[in-house]
From TrEMBL:
Major subcellular site: endoplasmic reticulum
Membrane topology qualifier: Multi-pass membrane protein
Name of protein: Polyisoprenoid diphosphate/phosphate phosphohydrolase PLPP6
Keyword Membrane in record: yes
Organism, scientific name: Zalophus californianus
Lineage: Eukaryota, Metazoa, Chordata, Craniata, Vertebrata
Short name of one Pfam family: PAP2
UniProt region (Disordered), positions on chain: 1-87
Keywords from the UniProt entry: Endoplasmic reticulum, Hydrolase, Lipid metabolism, Membrane, Nucleus, Transmembrane, Transmembrane helix
Catalytic activity: (2E,6E)-farnesyl diphosphate + H2O = (2E,6E)-farnesyl phosphate + phosphate + H(+); presqualene diphosphate + H2O = presqualene phosphate + phosphate + H(+); presqualene phosphate + H2O = presqualene alcohol + phosphate; (2E,6E,10E)-geranylgeranyl phosphate + H2O = (2E,6E,10E)-geranylgeraniol + phosphate
Length: 293
């Protein structure tokens, strides 16, 4: 039988939302970071009393504590109890934003699990896994970085070199920002994910945001703005970006919100790169150094 959840000094919690929720649901709060359960109101501070009953004692009620309604003949005045410590208060009025976020998180987890149809070989679409992994490689950082460096070394025009130099800057900025956010947020990858990814950094054990989604959005926006392509090819580039993002959820690597935020971040990163566009005029050292190689 599962033992009751206990507070810091070992007593059972008086009211805990987690006791009725399932693991993995946002109300469960099992990640250590999320403290979603209600806190015991008096449990650890009423000596010798049952915590639940103690909550009902008139002397502890907010009315008596504030002394707003002194009742005639209600007996001798009682000493005001000490204020409750922060961790012993029950939050009965969670904000609208809190409820909305928890609902979004619940929908996210549920939908991501439903869409993770290639997470393992035995999944319903498990036979599509090799194709999904090919898409994974197409949006991986290493081929993009090595490909850009190779093209840079072969480029013989100033215009080409300028574009490629900025693509390299964009890819490095992307790696840096994604690693930073992953390290700060530390959201675990979905439980159904198999950690069999090709070359990862240590922060890649975390899932928010999806690095593949940021790169796909960044690179596709970059390509659409700097390469002259026929319309069908432009459509293909946008499709590729969406499929790479969607395949992350199908593979079970990410939740939907990781990918959605990844797209937003990648799109924004392009605006940053465009704003700080490197050229032989504002970064002559970079271009001269590269030319000497
Ligand atoms: C070659 C140059 C100039 C620098 C190398 C910089 C560097 C540290 C590259 C590492 C590339 C790398 C291993 C990227 C990881 C890509 C990855 C697996 C991201 C995770 O994606 P996600 O969608 O699962 O979040």
């Amino acid at each position: 039988m599962p033992s009751p959840r206990r507070n810091a000094d070992g007593r059972p919690l008086a009211a805990s939302a987690s006791s009725t929720s399932s693991p993995g649901s946002p109300a469960h709060g099992g990640g250590g970071g999320g403290r979603f359960e209600f806190q015991s109101l008096l449990g650890s501070r009423a000596p010798g009393a049952d915590p639940t009953c103690a909550r009902l004692r008139a002397s502890e009620s907010p009315v008596h504590r504030r002394g707003s309604f002194p009742l005639a003949g209600a007996g001798p005045p009682q000493a005001a109890p000490a204020p409750l410590p922060e961790e012993d208060r029950m939050d009965l009025n969670p904000s609208f934003l809190g409820i909305a976020l928890r609902s979004l998180l619940a929908i996210d987890l549920w939908l991501s699990k439903k869409l993770g149809v290639c997470a393992v070989e035995s999944s319903s679409w498990g036979s599509m896994r090799p194709l999904m992994k090919l898409l994974e490689i197409s949006g991986h950082g290493i081929p993009w970085l090595l490909g850009t460096l190779y093209c840079l070394s072969r480029s013989d025009s100033w215009a080409g070199r300028e574009v490629l130099m900025n693509l390299l800057f964009a890819l490095l900025l992307d790696l840096l920002l994604v690693a930073l956010i992953k390290g700060l947020v530390r959201r675990r990858r979905p439980a159904h994910n198999q950690m069999d990814m090709f070359v990862t950094l240590s922060v890649d054990k975390y899932s928010f945001p999806s690095g593949h989604a940021t790169r796909a959005a960044l690179v596709s926006r970059f390509v659409l703005n700097h390469l002259v392509l026929a319309i069908p090819l432009r459509v293909l580039v946008v499709l590729w970006a969406f499929i790479v993002g969607f395949s992350r959820v199908m593979l079970g690597r990410h939740n939907v919100t990781d990918v959605a935020f990844g797209f937003f971040l990648g799109y924004t990163q392009y605006s940053i790169v465009d704003y700080f566009w490197l050229s032989p005029h504002n970064a002559p050292v970079l271009f001269v150094l590269w030319n000497q190689q």
